[in-house]
Design goal:
about 210 residues; mainly alpha; Arc Repressor Mutant, subunit A; elongated
């Protein structure tokens, strides 16, 4: 009986400790995001001050700054990003959703795009985003060479980025105009890819009709 009660108390204590640990991690990660939004590099000391906890508490959950950054990346993506659509036909609509997300978190996007410390993070996420778009194009246009699809993915990804959106807004274009400009580019690119993806016989007949 005593052993049973001791075991139960131990499980309760462990559960409480786990819950407290989860709350501490959530508090640290939220503080890191707030620190980033303020334009500051998320250092251990800065995040601890923002979270109003001892710096050693952060090290208890994140042994170094790289581990902390890696934990923050998925949360940043959730906050500033929009999941890529599942088909090439949905890309024009995806532009609108993506740019609305950028506008909703403009300050955070501008900080990430313009601060030196975020460069390694952007390098990683940009490659991953480019690769995801390339996979979408490969699925949608199976007859087109990888070289052509690589060029299409690279060109589109530049415009489907926070940096591209910031460029358009800083040029004086409204949100609606920025969306329209990039949707036009996406549509033109898709039309060209659809033409290249036709079977050779169909492409030859289409070329003959155009002449």
């Amino acid at each position: 009986m005593a052993d049973s009660m001791t075991s139960k108390r131990r499980r309760t204590t462990e559960s409480l400790r786990d819950a407290q640990g989860s709350l501490a991690v959530a508090r640290i990660l939220e503080a890191a995001i707030i620190e980033i939004e303020s334009g500051m590099e998320p250092t251990m000391r800065g995040v601890a001050a923002r979270a109003e906890i001892a710096e050693r508490t952060i090290y208890r959950h994140f042994p170094n700054l790289e581990v902390l950054h890696n934990a923050v990346i998925p949360l940043l993506r959730q906050r500033v990003g929009t999941p890529l659509c599942e088909s090439v036909t949905a890309l024009p609509a995806y532009v609108a959703d993506l740019f609305q997300g950028f506008a909703a978190h403009e300050q955070l996007n501008r900080v990430l795009a313009g601060t030196p410390w975020a460069a390694p993070l952007l390098k990683r996420t940009r490659r991953e985003n480019r690769d995801a778009l390339l996979r979408l194009l490969i699925t949608g246009f199976p007859r087109i060479t990888r070289e052509v699809l690589n060029s299409a993915a690279a060109s589109l990804r530049v415009n489907l980025s926070a940096a591209g959106w910031i460029y358009l807004r800083d040029c004086g274009y409204s949100q609606a105009e920025s969306i329209r400009h990039v949707q036009w580019l996406v549509q033109i690119t898709l039309e060209k890819l659809h033409t290249l993806n036709r079977p050779k016989a169909a492409s030859s007949r289409a070329s003959a009709r155009e002449k």
